[in-house]
Amino acid sequence: MGKREPVTTGVDGSEAALRSVRWAAGEAVRSGRPLRLVHACVPPGHDYPNLEVTEAEVREAMWATGARRLEIAANVARTSEPTLEIEAEARSGDPRALLVDESWRAAVVVLGSRGLTGAGRLPLGSSGLALAVHGHCPVIVVRGDRSRSGPVLVGVDDWAGSAAAVRFAFQEASTLGVPVTVLKTWREIDPAGSGGAREFFLRSLENHLNRVAAEFPHVVSECLVVRGRPGRVLMEYGERAGLIVVGTRGDSGFGGLLLGSVDQNSPGRAPCPIAVVRPGVVPAFEIRDEQPLSVKGDRT
Asked: Which CATH entry fits the domain spanning 7-142: 3.40.50.620, 3.30.1480.10, 3.50.50.60, 3.30.230.10?
């Protein structure tokens, strides 16, 4: 039998990354999984004669920095969750590519919203965006400092593109012991017809939702159908949420919101973590057999 899929988080030495480590540690304990910490070392491509530093010396310093950052992150995780099983690895390569590769073996990848390399203007950050588009498991981007005391809010576009996100929302709510709010928006040109449209969308949503809710009988849920712009409505209801969950495609635009195409400025105000679940993603059931808190990689 393979090892349990870990909760994986990227470590880059930033405060945002350490917040994501705390979140990921709680996620791992609640779901009975190990925590995997990953640090990306971007190898230099040349010497630095003006600084009298060789490529080999820069490379060695980078690995030493990676080891220190992983140790700090592991201590933060243990302070938060003392019984947590932790493994850590420094790997060589671009952080975005490495995290996409890690997503093959992870149950979920957790990231900070803004690391040392910036990308703060992107709703998910550059690594989160790469995982949202190319990842193979759900990704959670930790935003804001609010504790996870509110309900899980999941935005629904078309059901085919949102079913995986809804199921993930119920799974999270089940482990957290909180309710789920399922939210759909639409734009009605003729206000006189809005009542009938709302009832139609609500009945359709409830019919789909009943099948998922039956798998989680202890999770309280409600359906909301709201007329308005997806980004504005999502952020309004997100003010009361502990976690926002969306898919990556759909006709009403929740996926586009996080990819920057809908209400681009709204995600910056997101008060809580955001989870993105691509349609059809399936967590891996095996990961590599690593030793806890090892620092590995090709240093040549």
From this structure: 3.40.50.620
Quickly list DSSP for 169-201.
HHHHHHHHT--EEEEEEE--S-GGGHHHHHHHH
Parts of the chain belonging to CATH 3.40.50.620 = 7-142
Q: Residue 293 corresponds to which tokens in the numbers above?
A: 């808190």
Amino acid symbol at 233 = V
Q: How much is the pTM? A: 0.81
Return the residue matching tokens 């609010």: 146
Q: What secondary structure letter does DSSP report for 14?
A: S
Task: Give the pLDDT confidence of 88-140 residue by residue, as tens digits.
Answer: 999 988 888 889 999 999 999 998 876 544 333 344 455 666 777 678 899 99
Beta bridge partners of 10: 38
Options 3.40.50.2000, 3.10.20.740, 3.40.50.12370, 3.30.300.350; CATH of 152-272: 3.40.50.12370
